[in-house]
Amino acid sequence: MRESTLPFLAKSLSVLAALGLTACGTSATSDATADATESTDVAAADVPADVTADVAATDVTTAVGPVGNCAYTNLFSKGAECKSYPNAAGWTLDSATEDCKNAMGGPGTFTANSDCNLASTLGSCAVAKDGEPPYTIVSGGNDATKCASAKLGCETFAGGKFTPATPCADLGGETTTTTGGGYGSEPFVQPYTICKDPLPGEPAGEGPNGQVCTHVMISGCTEAGRHYEDYGKCADVLTQRPYWAGAPAKTSDPNDARLKDPEFVADLAWSKQQLEASACVCCHTQKSAPNHKPSGWYTDMEGIWLDGVKDSALAMLAGLADSTQLGAYPAKDNNGFDRTTLGIPTTDIPRMKSFLLKEWARRGKTLDDAKSIAPFGGPLVSQSTYQPDPCEAGEGVDAQGHVNWLGGEARYVYILQPDSANPGVPPNLDVPEKTVWHVNVPTAAKPLKSGIAYGAVTGDQVQRVPATGAAPKLVSGQKYYLYTLIDIGFPASRCTFTAL
User: Region 75-95: what's the mean pLDDT?
Assistant: First the structure.
């Protein structure tokens, strides 16, 4: 398997389509799913010119072979991809044409009565799910370092079957890890804390020796009244959540009556200040987002930043839609900012909640309207409820005490009680209470190969459970839960085994 672990993420259509998340927890899926999860439109400027042509309105009454195919450039990998719609499988010309409008690179080019025909391919992913028409995604290219990403994205997250083409005939080669490219181009940067002297002209901080201490984590906040980008590090935050360059939010009406309401104007300015003290700014301000292209709504838009927030995201921010699986710090350890009650970090829950609920009501929405909005977190939600099957032959802890797993190299390895919660994201969900033993490797280290010794801590391994002392001996005949992660949010192996 590969030496690096996360280049597959931004290079896999299936993985990022499944995630549908931006840095502050809002979603970036197509408008077709906006009722269940927040949608961020892709700016036309971000879509390569060769795939922005209008979908052809070809009149075909009898399809021979596939209903058609949709060619586009993957927004994340920038590689050519093609989606094939099989005939007599639930697809019609109309439904396939409509689906192509929501391709992962913006509107694709639809060709009726034709299969995909890319010049070179890494392989194909056949997806067939109950209640949905099947389809096949063909990944273009000949770079063998992208093979593992295509296979993992297909089989682990899209639930499909990957068939490799010639460049991917051998998935055992090396790959390289790029740095500085944000989410998907390097491993998840584990949370850490920066303590800095306050900027000139700013008051002393609340940390040691008057410094300002800030968690470098998507759920982290600096001190109220300060700007996160001055005290945190957005480059590392961007490795912790997908980022989409969304279309600019609509501008506010300068004559909006709300701007004449002193109470609203005061709350608007305060809410913006609260957000800009949080790591949300890394994606939700023009100032700090990559290439100054924020993910949909942004706090530094002219007028009322709320006008850029879609209904489902507003429900999440107001605490009407669940976002538990995105993780949170306790307020006492996050400069007083709480994100466990609302989906937006704040030092004053009642004030922020009132402000957001007034906007919800202004849009004509009721509390019942929010009940249909699915929990935020994409695959993090489904992973939290995952029920493991028994391990396959060879998986688990063998008679020699080696921990063996399938699915490739892993950065995080857990032995859990069989009824343990599934590991989630830092800072509060990554180590379940019923963890028996857990080791991981630092961000800059190479991942672990299957076969590490249970209870031993060697090389770059870091034992987190137990915090001190030796790992407890496994009880012969007792069932345990093996859980390994290629990286945060991306499981390799999840199964139960019986100790020998």
Answer: 83
What would the pLDDT profile of 41-78 be if each residue is shown by its tens digit?
A: 323 233 333 333 333 333 333 445 789 999 998 755 66
Mean pLDDT of 361-369: 97
Q: Are 304 and 268 in contact (CB under 8 A)?
A: yes
Distance (Å, whole) CA 238 – CA 180 = 9
497: its two tokens: 């085994």
3-state secondary structure of 379: helix
d(CA 357, CA 271): 13
CB atoms closer than 10 angstroms to residue 442: 13
- The pairing of beta strand 490-498 with beta strand 389-390: parallel
CA distance 268 to 202: 23
DSSP per residue, 410-450: BSEEEEE-TTPPPP--TTTSSS-TTEEEEEE--TTSPPBPT
Unique residue bearing structure tokens 């396959």: 392
Q: What is the pLDDT of residues 315-341, one digit of tens each?
A: 999 999 999 999 999 999 999 999 999
Q: Which helix (H) or strand (E) element contains residue 69?
A: strand 68-73
Which phi and psi (to 5°) does residue 384 adopt? -70, -25
Cα(39)–Cα(100) distance, rounded to whole angstroms? 17
Q: What percentage of the chain carries pLDDT values higher than 90?
A: 65
Axis-axis angle for helices 349-362, 262-276 (nearest 10): 120
Question: How far from 493 is each of 70, 414, 485, 487, 490, CA to CA, in Å?
Answer: 33, 10, 7, 12, 10
pTM over 0.85: no
User: Based on C-alpha coordinates, what's the Rg of the chain?
Assistant: 24
Query: What does the alpha-carbon distance between residue 425 and residue 217 come to, in Å, rounded to a whole number?
Result: 11
Domain segments of the chain: what residues? 7-168, 192-370, 387-498
The Cα-based distances of 453 to 122, 241, 411, 456 in angstroms read 35, 31, 15, 5
Q: What is the rounded CA–CA span in Å between residue 163 and residue 416?
A: 33
